[in-house]
Amino acid sequence: MTKSDFPQKIKYSLIIPFFNEEHSVEPLFDSLKKVMNGFKEDYEVIFINDGSRDNTLSLLECLSRSNDFVRVISFDTNRGQGKAIEEGFRNVRGDVVITMDGDLQNDPVDIPMLTHKIDQGFDLVCGWRYLRNDTVIKKIKSKIGNFFQRKITGLNIHDISCTMRAYRREIIKEVVFYGEFEFSVLPYIISRDKNIKITEVKVKDNYRKFGKSKYRTLRTIFGTMYDYIRLIVKNKR
């Protein structure tokens, strides 16, 4: 089967952004295939190369040539995690859309927990890294940021910055993206439709084996709080 023969109606779409993660590409893909093949459903993997300057793009393109269910979207410059996932949303074909990081800290073995909640009738399932493999300072900063997020929005999500989530495709097709807003605010944007059912599940937070965090250090969690406040003010006008 070639990419032109690939079924247009599929069950799962995975969106995974990469920014200078050449050492993570192949082990992540191997783990991902083992999990997804267990579903016995058609799926696609959309890798987003977010302006990587190492060998990431070459490795992703090699996987795409060897696997009909893999597509690669590449940015010439680093646009950020939010823009990468937004582009993935525009290109998905699956009924259920799963997002996760490409640095091996999100674990594909948790995907069935997310999809199980979707099967139970939820529209958005957020990952909660209950046991964080991070520095003490980052853990404290995260707890403070998540606390204020719940107070500001009334949305009871414990981990606003966890990329690992599952969405029903129809809800992301209705999302209006607001310029440079953080990907983290998507649950709040989606939650404004009172008919949307949102939940969370505890997921692994693996120790980072290669390199260092890139997206998380670009803007602090307090930048996300600023985005929430902007959205709330915008909606009240």
Overall, the morphology is globular
CA-atom Rg in angstroms: 17 Å
* Helix-and-strand structural type: alpha/beta
Low-pLDDT segments: none
Strand order of the largest sheet: 3-2-1-4-6-5-7
CATH class descriptor: Alpha Beta
Mean pLDDT: 83
Task: Please explain how this structure is put together.
This protein is an alpha/beta fold and 237 residues long. It has one domain (7-236): Alpha-Beta Complex (Spore Coat Polysaccharide Biosynthesis Protein SpsA, Chain A). The chain is 39% helix and 19% strand. The chain contains 9 helices and 7 strands. The chain has helices at residues 25-37, 56-66, 81-91, 111-119, 136-153, 169-172, 186-191, 215-218, 221-236, and strands spanning 10-18, 43-50, 70-75, 94-99, 124-129, 165-168, 198-203. Strands 3-2-1-4-6-5-7 form a 7-stranded mixed β-sheet, with helices on both faces. The longest helix has 18 residues, at 136-153. It is globular. The N and C termini lie far apart (52 Å). The mean pLDDT is 83.
Quick recap of the structure?
This protein is of the alpha/beta class. It has helices at residues 25-37, 56-66, 81-91, 111-119, 136-153, 169-172, 186-191, 215-218, 221-236, and strands at residues 10-18, 43-50, 70-75, 94-99, 124-129, 165-168, 198-203. The chain is built from nine helices and seven strands.
